Amino acid sequence: MDRVIPKPTVKRLNLYAREVQRMIDVGQQKVSSSDLGNRVGVKSNQVRKDLAYLARDEVAGDHGRAGIGYDCERLVVGIEKLVGAQKRWSLALVGVGNIGRALLSYASFDEEGYPIAAAFDANEKMVGKRIGRWEVQPMTQLSRTIKARRIPIGILAVPREAAQGLADQLCAVGVVGLLNFAPMQLTVPPHVIVANIDLTITLKQLSMDIALKSGSGRSSHRRRKERS
Amino acid sequence: MDRVIPKPTVKRLNLYAREVQRMIDVGQQKVSSSDLGNRVGVKSNQVRKDLAYLARDEVAGDHGRAGIGYDCERLVVGIEKLVGAQKRWSLALVGVGNIGRALLSYASFDEEGYPIAAAFDANEKMVGKRIGRWEVQPMTQLSRTIKARRIPIGILAVPREAAQGLADQLCAVGVVGLLNFAPMQLTVPPHVIVANIDLTITLKQLSMDIALKSGSGRSSHRRRKERS
DNA sequence: GCTTGTGAATTTCTTCACAGCT
DNA sequence: AGCTGTGAAGAAATTCACAAGC
Lengths: 228, 228
Fold this sequence. Notes:
2 copies of one chain form a homodimer. Chain A is of the alpha/beta class. Chain A folds into 2 domains: 7-82, Winged helix-like DNA-binding domain superfamily/Winged helix DNA-binding domain (Arc Repressor Mutant, subunit A); 91-200, 3-Layer(aba) Sandwich (Rossmann fold), CATH 3.40.50.720. Chain A contains 9 helices and 11 strands. In chain A, the strands form 3 sheets. Chain A has a 6-stranded parallel beta sheet with strand order 7-4-3-8-9-10, with helices on one face. A two-stranded antiparallel ribbon of chain A has the order 1-2. A two-stranded antiparallel ribbon of chain A has the order 5-6. The longest helix of chain A is centred in the N-terminal third of the chain and has 19 residues, at 7-25. The first copy, chain A, is globular. Chains A and B meet through helix 1, helix 5, strand 10, helix 9 and strand 11 of A and helix 1, helix 5, strand 10, helix 9 and strand 11 of B. Chain A binds a DNA duplex through residues 6-9, 32-34, 43-46, 48-49, 51-52, 55, 63-70.
């Protein structure tokens, strides 16, 4: 009777979907929980538990067949239904510096249903330039454009000092999610959700993990270690 | 008697250190667990529990003073001792496309003790170019350079199709950590640790979180929602 | 009054183990 | 034989609640 899906499960479901899609591209039709687990770096038990959430949802439907496995096609469809990949969310990119430009050239956003709908920069030399199919807009247009086009998610790719102020602006004009590349914690109204991409923190964790593993030898599992 | 520091705690300790450093820059001398908690988006209880790990470590030392708080200076020093920020780790950047170039221009890596020591690309037009202070090297130099300079961490900023092969190469020449920007799970030997920066998965989680929060109104806590 | 530190309770997530289907 | 689904056990992380210091 549990309607809520655990956070870690949501994440893994997305990984499964991507992996299974890739198997389909290669002509595979069935997949077992242990196959999938190996590819994603997760125990087969965990895979089955995660996939069991599909069956609990009316629309996603049941899937596994004992002795056989899961049908790839149905599986990705089911996961996407459950985990909401059906909707498209447009993005507003704020900051067209190095990271911003990299994001504009990053085709996957589009392909995955997250089109960048507009790009803004404070730098006058940047404003008006065309980058790919975007024309960089001045910050003065930010509210207007986001409101008019009802863009739900903002990407902050600006220097740390500017991030909080722009986050405030974005929240004020109705954004409900932020993808934050600035190395700081943003403070936002309670209805807004922030996802941080924090490169230096990630690197620090990585090096800490490396340092720790050197000290603690013997682990029986033999595949891979993963951090998000 | 617990020598091991929980993963989530390591992450938060890094966030605390950064935040406290910023307070120092602004002239602050003391900080309380609730101050710090507010800034990082964590309950004060949690902050204290996390900081208690400092006292358990001989070298990091004890810190909090009841009724007063923590001394900012000593705190960052203590955290950095505990969480290993003293060591420098050099990086090998593999792939000088959009993301790769953005990383080369990203000053924080250097400042935080993670200098990019070399950059490689498979594209002949790229090889030999100077970008900032780096000269892009051909992939044929990859093993030589990494072995010679004993670079411990590789950054994979290459297309998905190339990622696994290059990961294999990097692991073969002694890298012990990988920062992977390719949208896939890498398979690596057990002693190598992988940290993934997965933009589309992050976006999918973000949009799922947004969708969920719309459905479940009343939560009593009022600050921010954070995902890594 | 405001603060830290911490055992105990609680919640969340993972792993185990096995019944049951193909 | 090989596989799924799941209750039960276990482990990990968070939150509570309160004694004790300033």
